[in-house]
Amino acid sequence: MKPALALIAMLPVLAACEQRMAHAPRDNTYSEGPGGSAAQPPPSGTIAREDDLTSRSDTIPGPVSAAMLERGRERYNIFCSPCHSVAGDGDGIVVRRGFPRPPSFGEPTLLSAPDGHFYDVITNGYGVMFRYGDRIPPADRWAIVGYLRALQLSQHAAIASLSPELRQRLEAAP
What we know:
- The chain is mostly helical and 174 residues long.
- Helix content is 48%, strand content 2%.
- The protein has 8 helices and 2 strands.
- A two-stranded antiparallel sheet has the order 1-2.
- Helix 2 crosses helix 7 (138-155) and helix 6 (115-124) packs across helix 7.
C-alpha cells in the first residue's frame, strides 16, 4: 500500500515538471546558436539516405599486395573459416556441428563471380550467412576478397604452370 501512496504523492511533482519542459526554451534545428548552428554535425562515416550506394567497384580497388593478402588471410581465418574452412571447401568446424554447408569457393559459379559479389555477400550476408558489414571494415572486406581469389587460384592452378622446384616439392609431399 505504501508504494501506491508514494506514487500518488509524486503526481503533482511530475505534472509540474512536465509543464516546465513544455515551455522550456529551445533552438530550432537550423537556427544560429551560440557556437554557430544549433544542429550537431553528423558523425564521421554517416551515409545520407539519398546517397547512391550502388556505384561500388566490382573489382578490388587498388593494387593487391602481399601485405593485403596476409591481412585477408588473417581476417578470413577469423571470420570465414569456421563455416567455409581454411581451404574454402565449405567444410568448416561449424558445418561439422550441424550448420548448413556453404558452397565451396571452387565451384564454377563462384570462380567466375565478380569480386564485388564476394564483397557484397560479406557486407550483407547471403542465405543463412550472417552479415558482417558492421563488423569488418571495407578495406578488410576487400582484403578477404583478394585472399579468396588467391585461395581459388592455388586450388585450381595447373601443375605445368608451377616452377620445377615447386613441382618437386608437390610431388614429394605425402
